[in-house]
Amino acid sequence: MILEKLVLENFRQFRGRQEILFSTIKDRNVTLVHAENGFGKTAMLNALLWGFYGHEGLTEDLPKKENIIHEGTAARSRHATSTSAKVTIWFSHDHERYRLERELTLEQQKLDAKKTDLTLELSMDGMVQPVQFAQKKILTLMPTGISEFLFFNGEGIEHLAREENSAKITEAIRQMLGLKLLETAIEDLRCHSVLGKLRTELKERASLEKAAKIDEQSLVDEDIADLNKRKETNQKNIVATDAELGMVNAKLELNREAHHLQTRREDLEKQQTALNDRLGLVTKRLGQIIAEDSYALFADDLVKRGREIVNKLRSEGKIPARVLNTFLKELLDSKTCICKRHLVDGSSERKAVEDLMTYAGDQQFNNAVGALDNALGRIEEGAEHTRKTLQETNAERIKIIDDLKVVREELADIHQKIGGKADEEVHKLEETREALLLKQRELVAEKARIELKLEEKTKRRDELTKEIQDITDSEADAQKAQRRLTAVEDSARLLERILEIETAELRPVLNKEIGEHFRKIIGVGYWAELSDDFKLKIMKRLEVSEDESDASKSFDLEVALSQGQRQVTSLVFIASMVALARRRSEIPTIVKGLTGSEYPMVMDSPFGQLSQFRPGVARWIPELAPQVIIFVSSAQFEGSVANELKRSRRIGKRYFLTYHGPHIHAEAKRELQIGKDPVTVYFENKEEFTEIQELES
């Protein structure tokens, strides 16, 4: 999908008709919209989302979501049916051109702002034809599951690098990289109208025993569906709680009374995360040592007994053997002694050699005892090394636990100090923060319980499926119904397995892409990757000395992320997905015949928390996506971002927003130097509204 044009009519603060043409040239794929804080950047982002998805697409940070129509226009209106807000979007997708229009009248807004009028037209061969089921068509072109990865507030995407959003990332990978078809097929096969109908048909023809199991399986399926809904709700609640917690932390940091303590707390929480990561790593290492080498610690009695046996054999002269039986047998067989005497049967010479056989040593016995002696030595050495390694590793673990205790005690002390402040605002913020932390822990615990129940129910469903299939029916109709049901269930399981394998195969491809781009932005020493459970992580390599020698082991350690690092990691992930989606057909996986899809990246304030990462993001992101649209304030744009974008020669279109109103944001500028000459961007006015102005090249 490539965005071509956006027209706003009385949408939020955009009074009257305002329009913007997006750059569609591949080598100049960046459209810049300069806007100070409070001028309408977020409203413009939401205009695109509202156009595609309606009320459900609006971002969480948009205030007064029910007020879509420009307030001044709505207040002056005398005809509620003829006054409206409208968003029109022209876009292309897979060489087809579309025109989308969503409208909300003042009458509709008063009754229910969620109910809008949507039309979608397809231009083909000079002809324009309306698209039936417009919203459904839009969702096939750009599912809601990927909208937040393509249209986003840059300062709010850092949540993607949190563990609880791994399911959201997995879903986005499947949708953007062409696997949604498999998911849809599985859902269609397992839906009640298919699976339920076949089960009912089989139940009517099956034995009482099989019918009872079919009933149980239907109940289990209902439980699974209910658990999946609860899991989805839980996930949304976790994301919302994290967002609230982030806002409270930000307010505490800005408060003069709490600033110093809150800053220290954030540092301590990073230390706590790093220590917990190290504790997990050391505990895992301790477990590996115990699992692989601890046997040596329990072999003291065995080694002692082995040494006694070897020493006894040695004292008796049995090892090393003075003469081997194989050597004597060769002499007897050849009938010639080493002194050249003949060993004739019955001769005294032969009898003398035969008598030696009674105490001659066996070759295999000698080898076995030698191996035993050697093994005992290795076990003794290994036991000593294992004992020393265990002691050192456990000491390291205890040290980390002690450090964690110190950090937690200081965190608890900070909580008491902030909570005890005389400032009522600080006191309430701290109370809210503590309540949110408790809620967060409860939600995470609930998530674990739901996932455990899901695992149990899924296992039981599979057991019932096998039990039902194992019951043989006598009637031909029942057998036929069973075959049909089995075919559907087997097909669904096969598709689920293909989906799992395909997703797993795409992970290393995506990891490579993420890693390459992350290094370009961040530099050497760190890398970004997706874990096995699709959590976004930043990693570094840690060298740990084994003993006093120079020998050391390297371990890959997850780094505790700052907000800026989480933001840049999330940005790199999104850009990498967009880049891979373009060349999807080149990726060798199980599902064949998939074509690439182009998606834009529309970013509101993407450079806010990036600090030193701004130049890298400005340099590399435009090279990864086919189209990049950036809404940016002067504070974020000036300096390194401006220099990198200018150097890249990728800016195709530039606009700025002018704001008319009684007052402006304290940090906003009235005049900007964004072209050859300064431009005025604020005009004092009783009524509030924003206009879009194109910046001449």
Plain-language structure description:
- The chain is an alpha/beta fold.
- Among the domains are: 2-142 and 599-666 and 685-694, P-loop containing nucleotide triphosphate hydrolases (Rossmann fold, 3-Layer(aba) Sandwich); 294-407.
- It is built from 20 helices and 18 strands.
- The chain has helices spanning 41-53, 71-76, 106-112, 134-141, 144-150, 166-176, 180-190, 192-205, 208-254, 259-293, 300-315, 325-334, 348-356, 363-419, 424-470, 476-522, 563-582, 614-624, 634-637, 640-648, and strands at residues 2-11, 14-21, 30-34, 84-93, 96-105, 117-124, 127-130, 151-153, 527-530, 536-545, 552-558, 600-604, 627-632, 651-661, 671-672, 679-680, 682-684, 689-694.
- The strands form four sheets. Strands 3, 8, 12, 13, 14, 17 and 18 form a seven-stranded mixed beta sheet that branches.
- Helix 16 (476-522) packs across helix 17.
- The chain is globular, with a radius of gyration of 36 Å.
- The chain starts with a strand and ends with a strand.
- The mean pLDDT is 81.
The biggest beta sheet reads: 7 strands, mixed
Overall shape: globular
What's the CATH topology label of one domain?
Rossmann fold
Mean pLDDT: 81
- Which superfamily, in CATH terms, is the homologous superfamily of one domain? P-loop containing nucleotide triphosphate hydrolases
Quick overview:
With about 700 residues, the protein is of the alpha/beta class.
